[in-house]
Amino acid sequence: MLNLILFGPPGAGKGTQAEFLINSYQLIHLSTGDLLRSEIAGQTRLGLEAKAFMDKGELVPDAVVIGMIKSKLENNKTAKGFIFDGFPRTVDQAKALDELLNGNETPVCGMLSLEVERQELINRLLGRGLVSGRSDDQDQSVIENRINVYNDKTAPLIAYYQAQNKHFGINGMGTIPEIAERLKQTVDNIM
Ligand code: ADP
Predict the structure, then answer these.
(1) Mean pLDDT in runs of 10 for the chain (191 residues)?
(2) Would you say the CB of residue 65 lies under 6 angstroms from ligand 1?
(3) Pocket perturbation via mutation, ligand 1, pick of 6, 17, 36 by most ligand atoms within 8 A of CB
(4) β partners of residue 2
């Protein structure tokens, strides 16, 4: 199985590049942000609980997102592999993912870590907010909080995967096809 983590701060281009990777390598896309937004749209209890955190730019509790990923993995046992997008976002989530995948003897193959400058992130997110309708992209203070939460809670995952020799830094500045090509070269090396 080809299990890849697409990693990077909010606005790094994970969703855009995930599209390209799932098509190129026939992988299943698991985006916790998309899964949470669909719970919100369906007005489920989980969605209502998550929305309060997301509107502030805070992380949804680990147990909620780990439970969502667990059920997706159980429902896709014959997949060629997964692209994890927006997950894991904390060290506890990474440990839970390792346990879930190692239980199946299909560990994480690599973390593709998109590197983008802070000001470029803010510009991209504000631009997306104009067209996406995502309220968390329309408020500069929520955007800044998301980037700060990323730096505090999520960036430590770089060291977590470096310690396993699974971290691959990728320049996330440039055009979408340029970045896609860098990702492809990295994935081909991992395979
Ligand atoms: P972005 O990468 O642009 O922040 P996402 O769609 O990945 O967008 O996430 C949107 C929001 O959903 C996050 O700000 C957070 O509140 C919540 N979220 C998504 N994934 C996770 C996760 N793995 N753990 C906790 N919260 C999450």
Answers:
(1) 97 96 96 97 96 97 97 93 97 97 88 97 95 92 96 98 97 97 97 90
(2) yes
(3) 36
(4) 81
Which H/E stretch holds residue 23?
A: helix 14-25
Q: Are 142 and 136 in contact (CB under 8 A)?
A: yes
pTM of the model: 0.95
Residue 37 to residue 41: CA distance in whole angstroms: 6
**Phi then psi dihedrals of residue 168, to 5 deg:** -125, 110
Distance 25 CA to ligand 1 centre (A): 24
What count of other Cβ atoms lies within 10 Å of the Cβ of residue 145? 16
Round to whole Å and give the CA distance between 158 and 63.
21
Rounded to 5°, the CA angle 104-80-1 comes to 45
- Identify the CA nearest to 182 among candidates 61, 8, 60: 8
Which ligand 1 atom sits nearest the alpha carbon of residue 36? Answer: 12
| DSSP code, position 135 | G
Token reading at 61: 């509790």
